[in-house]
Amino acid sequence: MDEGRSSTRSRLIDVAERLFAERGIDAVSLRTVGAEAGQRNKSAAQYHFGSRQGLLDAIVAARSAPVDAHRTALLAQACEAADPPDLRSLVTLLVQPLAESIGTGGGSAYYLRFLAQAADEPSVRAAWRDTYATPTTVRAVHDGIRSRLADLPHDVLERRLEWSALVTVRLLAEHERRHHAGETAPGERARTVREVVEMQVALLRCPAV
């Protein structure tokens, strides 16, 4: 891909991510993305991504790659420790890389809010279920959680894993908003990670009813 086309794609991804995060997935057309990105060709976004789903996939691919690379490195460190990671450590592996992408995710200031909007779209969630939404490392962490909560019925645990992901994204999206509005204090991200992790551990561990 030549440099000019790559630059245009990156610009369209950045603009689309912001618009989807601010307005919602269904409220933003490909034409709007192109116009907001300063493209004279009103069909620029369709030319580069084919469809809105293609643009959504491109955003996730661009933003999720560094997040999952960080998670992979953290998982490798955890597996090299003398003791295998416990439930709290595994849940931290799900939360921490996302939280640490805030403000450092390739220049993105909107990825968590984008994900929160995407989580409200059943068709989007279905399209990502077997691809970007559950990358290899996330699946490995989920398998570890399942092995540590084997006493829970399968359907209960799977439902809780889905709830955990949805709650995590929404809470971190709010932290992202506050961070970029200058409303967070030093050390608040680390505290947010600890609190979200403790909430998710409690959610996952509570007895089946």
Automatic annotation (TrEMBL):
<protein>
    <submittedName>
        <fullName>TetR/AcrR family transcriptional regulator</fullName>
    </submittedName>
</protein>
<dbReference type="Pfam" id="PF00440">
    <property type="entry name" value="TetR_N"/>
</dbReference>
<keyword id="KW-0238">DNA-binding</keyword>
<dbReference type="InterPro" id="IPR001647">
    <property type="entry name" value="HTH_TetR"/>
</dbReference>
<feature type="domain" description="HTH tetR-type">
    <location>
        <begin position="12"/>
        <end position="59"/>
    </location>
</feature>
<dbReference type="InterPro" id="IPR009057">
    <property type="entry name" value="Homeodomain-like_sf"/>
</dbReference>
<dbReference type="InterPro" id="IPR050109">
    <property type="entry name" value="HTH-type_TetR-like_transc_reg"/>
</dbReference>
